[in-house]
Write a structure and sequence with these properties.
The structure is a homodimer. Chain A is α/β, with parallel strands linked by helices. Helices cover 27% and strands 25% of the residues of chain A. In chain A, strands 3, 4, 5, 6, 7, 14 and 15 form a seven-stranded mixed β-sheet that branches. In chain A, helix 2 packs across helix 3. The interface between A and B is large, with 43 and 43 residues.
Chain lengths: 343, 343
C-alpha cells in the first residue's frame, strides 16, 4: 500500500460576516500509511450545510466550534480505497463525518455502511440523511400537522424545506413554500406539489404570502428567520407550532439589528396565540428514531411521493464558493461537492 | 322581593401605561327585580388578576377587549341573595364571572356551584381556581419537570408562582423563586419550602440568581418577562422548557423598548439550546382537564403540602388601587377584594 497526498480546507481565521477565501487555508499533506484495523477513505461527496457557518464562530452554537487550524467539519460519502480492517472491503461505500478533505484515515468506527453498490450514494447526505431526517422529525414530532391545516416552509427547494413540504402534502396539509426567485417557486409547485410558493424577492412578498395563506398558518417550519419570519408572524393561527431548526438569514450577522427590541413582543405573540416554538438538533434529540424515518422516506422515494434535487458542484477547489452560495440561497437543491470520482 | 342598588366599575377610557382612576367610572344603578328562572347574586369576593390589564387595551390579546362603557370583567365568588330558579337556593355559594360589581342578575347558567357552606369559598378564585390550575397545567404539561431538575419561577409569592414552586417541590425538583423584597423571599423559602428565593430589587440580582442555579435552569415558568427573563436566559440548560402564561412586566408598556432588536437572538437561543417555549391560556387549552387538577390540589391542600396566601382588600371602592398595586407587585399573595359581607 502507498500513502496519498491529501488536500483539505482548514479554518484559518474566524469570519466577520460572510466567510471569504481568507478564512480558509487550502493545505496539502501526505497521509501516513494505514495501520492494522484502519481504512483509507476516499471522499466522493461532501455535504455543505448551513450549520457549518455556526461552527466557524467562537461562540456557543449547536456544538463545539471548529478551532483555528482544524479541518472544517462535514458529512461525507466515501469509498474504502485501502483496508486493513476486516469489516470493510475496498470499494465499500460509507457515510462518514470526515470533513472538507479528499481522503481520511479511519479506524472503522462511527461509519455507517452503505453497501458496495448503492444506487444513489449521495442521497445519504440529503433526503435519506441529516436534512431529510431534520425535515421529518421537526415537522411530524414538533409541528404535529393535521389534515387540512396550512404548513409554511421557507427555503422551499432546499433539502430540508422541499422535504418538509412534500411530507406535509402526504399528510393532507395545504403547503405554502417560500423561495428566492420564480424558477425555484415554479419547481416547488410543479415538481414538489406545493399548493403555492411565494418569491421572497418580490416587492409585495408579504401581501402575496397573506393571500396564499387564506386560513392563516398552523405550522411554520422555521429554517431562515429574518424578513420571512417577520411576514409569517402576523399570520400565525391560535395554537400554531414552530419547529425551529435553523436561522440561516442570521448566520452572517455581525451584530444585533437596530431596535426597537421585539423580544418581548415575540413572547407576547407566543402567549396570546398560545404558540409552541421549539428548537431541535436532529441527532441529539431524535437519533434514536432514525430507523422510523428511514423506513418511511425510502418508501416515499420508491413510490415517487418525494422528489429530491441535488445541486452538485464539481471540483473540490470550489468548495468555499459553493458554501457561500448556499448561505446566500444561490443553490437550487441540496449542495453537494463531488470531491473525487468513484473507484 | 325588592330591587337593589348596584355599584360597579365600568371602563371609561383606555389607559396609556399604568391605569388610573380616570380610566374607570364608578357608577350606581338600580337593578330590576329578578324574573322567573333568574337569581340575584351578591358578590362576596372579586378576583383581581394580571390578565385584566390586557382586556383594557383595544388590541388582540387573550380575548375580546372590554368595550368603553362596559363593566370590567372578572371572576367572583357570590352568594345567592334572591332566587326564582329551582336549581339554586338563597345562601348558596357560586363561582361566577360577573365582574367588578356588587350585585348581578344571572339566569343560573355558567355558574359553578360551591355548595351552601364551603370552608374557604375565596379559594375558588386562587389556589383551587384559575391561578392554581394555570400553575398546575403549565408546570406539569408544558414544563415536564423531572426529579432533580431546577425549576425557576418569578412572582414567587403570587398565586401562580407560589403554586408552581410548591408543585415542583412535590415533584422532587430544586426550586428557585424570584420575588420583590426580602419579606416575600423569606416567605417563599420558609413557608413555601423553596430552596432559594432571589430579590429582583437587589443590585446584584443577576449574580445571585446565577449562584442559586448552580446546575442551570431546566424549567423556567414565565409569568413576568422583562429583566427577570433577561437574567434567566443565559442560565437556561439544553432542552429547557418555558411555559409562558404571562408577561406582567410588559402589560403597561406603551411602546416597544429601544434596541437593539433581540428577537432573532432569542430564537437563536431557542435553536442552539433546543428550548421549548409555549404559550397557553388555561381554560382554552386545558379546560377538559380541570377535574384532574382539582383532585390533586385538594389532596395537597388537605395534606398541608401546598400553602396558600391571600392578599385580601376590604372595601369595593378600593378595587382600582388594589388592581394597580397587583400590577406593580405590591400585593403579597393572591389579590382578592372583599366586596360584601356574606349573608
Amino acid at each position: 500500500m502507498t500513502s496519498v497526498d491529501n488536500r483539505k480546507f482548514v479554518l484559518a481565521s474566524r469570519p466577520t460576516g460572510a466567510p471569504t477565501e481568507d478564512n480558509f487555508d487550502f493545505k496539502t499533506e501526505q497521509l501516513p500509511e494505514i495501520k492494522d484495523g484502519e481504512l483509507l477513505l476516499r471522499t466522493i461527496y461532501l455535504s455543505l450545510d448551513p450549520y457549518m457557518r455556526g461552527r466557524m464562530n467562537d461562540a456557543e452554537s449547536y456544538a463545539e466550534p471548529v478551532n483555528i487550524g482544524e479541518i472544517m467539519v462535514g458529512a461525507t460519502v466515501c469509498q474504502v480505497e485501502q483496508s486493513k480492517n476486516d469489516k470493510f472491503a475496498v470499494g465499500d461505500w460509507v457515510l462518514a463525518y470526515t470533513g472538507w478533505q479528499e481522503y481520511a484515515i479511519s479506524n472503522g468506527k462511527e461509519l455507517m455502511p452503505l453497501g458496495n453498490d448503492p444506487s444513489r450514494p449521495s442521497y445519504a447526505l440529503g433526503v435519506m440523511g441529516m436534512p431529510g431526517f431534520t425535515a421529518y422529525m421537526g415537522l411530524l414530532d414538533i409541528g404535529e400537522p393535521k389534515e387540512g391545516e396550512t404548513v409554511v416552509v421557507a427555503a422551499a427547494t432546499g433539502p430540508v424545506g422541499a422535504t418538509v413540504g412534500q411530507i406535509a402534502k402526504i399528510k393532507g396539509c395545504k403547503v405554502v413554500g417560500i423561495a428566492g426567485g420564480t424558477e425555484k417557486c415554479q419547481h416547488a409547485v410543479e415538481k414538489l406539489g406545493f399548493d403555492a410558493c411565494i418569491d421572497h424577492k418580490a416587492d409585495n412578498f408579504e401581501e402575496q404570502l397573506k393571500e396564499a395563506c387564506t386560513d392563516g398558518i398552523d405550522v411554520y417550519y422555521e429554517n431562515v428567520g429574518g424578513k420571512v419570519f417577520d411576514a409569517v408572524l402576523p399570520l400565525l393561527n391560535i395554537s400554531a407550532r414552530i419547529p425551529l431548526c435553523g436561522l440561516v438569514s442570521q448566520y452572517n450577522a455581525t451584530s444585533l439589528p437596530d431596535g426597537p427590541d421585539r423580544m418581548f413582543a415575540l413572547m407576547g405573540h407566543i402567549l396570546t396565540k398560545r404558540i409552541k416554538m421549539q428548537g431541535f438538533i436532529i441527532f441529539d434529540d431524535y437519533g434514536h428514531r432514525y430507523d422510523e424515518f428511514a423506513k418511511d422516506m425510502q418508501q416515499w422515494l420508491n413510490e415517487g411521493k418525494v422528489h429530491y434535487k441535488e445541486h452538485m458542484i464539481d471540483g473540490f477547489e470550489n468548495t468555499v464558493t459553493a458554501f457561500n452560495d448556499m448561505l446566500n440561497g444561490k443553490n437550487f437543491g441540496k449542495t453537494v461537492v463531488k470531491v473525487n470520482n468513484p473507484l
